Give the backbone structure.
Amino acid sequence: MARRDDPPTRAHGEQLAAEWVTFRDLLVAGRSADAIAFADRIVAESGDPLRVAQALIEKVAGLLNQGGAARPAPLLDRIAELLRQAGHHPRLSGEYHVLAAYAAFADGSMSTAVSNLVQAERVLRGMTEANQAAVSTWHDMSVTYSAMGFHAKAVDAMRAGRRVCVAAGIAEANCACLETLVRSAVARDHQGMSEDCVRELWEVVTFGRAAEPDLTVSDRTYLRYAAARLAAFGHRPAGGDPLPGGTTPDSPDRSFSQVVYLTEVCEAIAEDRPDDALRLLGEPAASGSWLGEAEPHRLRSIAMSRTGDHAGAVQAERAMLRVITRDDGSLRDRYIDSVNARLDQDRLRQIAQEHADAAMSDPLTGLPNRRRITAFAAELAARGADAAVGLIDLDGFKAVNDTHGHSSGDLVLQRIAGLLAQSVRGQDLPARFGGDEFMVLLPETGLAEAREVGGRITAAVVGEDWEALVPGTPVGMSMGWAALPAGGDLDAVVRAADEELYREKRALRPA
């Protein structure tokens, strides 16, 4: 069936490009409310999945810029479905994963955020599109990596975007990523590398001066912050040349407002008005994470030193160190999680190779599927071997999908698959039975020994840091076991395991 507005390919591409330009102009000017309204009009009038997907992507970007309590999970689910309908579109798929990463980060779900960024980068590395829209996607990936504290990855994404600028014949200022560079510089200062911070801020100012006519309002905002931060350090250009300044946007977007506010703090320090700086730092507008939670503490320390309150300055420095120590620990934990996930994936690949047949594998988790379960049971029967059958059902999974969206639900299922793979023995078969149900077949194993294996699986699931992956929605599991005699009726045994599983669920429910 044809869509209501299915245009010719060239016209379709031109329409997408024109609408993207409108979205970009609104968002980089801090007019997210107008971008959201424009997206809603396109969604209401269009039946084309790519137009609607792009509009919803930009709507999510607007919601994230505004901050607040909006949860974009339902919109992200809809975007994912539209992109599946539309087929392969690397730029929009990459942008979707970048936004899903930022939404997860804003929600406190670090593992989900990292997983989405990895997927985004894989998609974008294969993108052949070379235009401003493609550059903007790399830009968004850069600032998302930066906001999460992965500064080296953020700079790599910025460089990839600038390479696309060169390929497209457009100014590299279109991927200036001054937010990335400023955040990286102040992070160095927080870590005690103030000379490196000053050097990097001067690089931002030098680049910004040369590129200022081509900079977006957003980049100009961060350029002014770099200049004000240098001035607060007492650094000004030789010869009396002024630092870049000018006006800052009058915008309700929180992505601008805290930076603009802290710029005023830095300017007050630079103008020897430390009491004004401290007053400004006492206002709610000074708090937030756009420049890192440590930055207001650092500015407070500088201002207090200027007033002669050295004890207060030391307290502010300690508060800053508590923040960066916490963040560095979080980054290490995420690295450890990624290594664990990689080891789990190695084990899943080994299982897939042992049971190699695409028709017998679950595409989401990589585990064997129901067809492989049936075939494996037949193989056991043929050699006269009995087995234990364990049926696993996840607890709290519906809440994951409802709260965080189906992309996060998929990550939970993949993580469960990894935990199963690391918990069972080499001869065992872990499999996805369907939905949020899994099964393990343990050849030549009695129920007592099987329940020991089940205990390891349960401990792995209970011990997983679900709060990092899907905050506020704990994931648990229930398990039922039944014996499968050689040549026995697999369906009857599965029903018996299912009955035990639900007895366990009922026993766990509060009276």
Observations:
- Residues 1-8 have pLDDT under 50 and may be disordered.
- DSSP finds 21 helices and four strands in the chain.
- The longest strand covers residues 387-395.
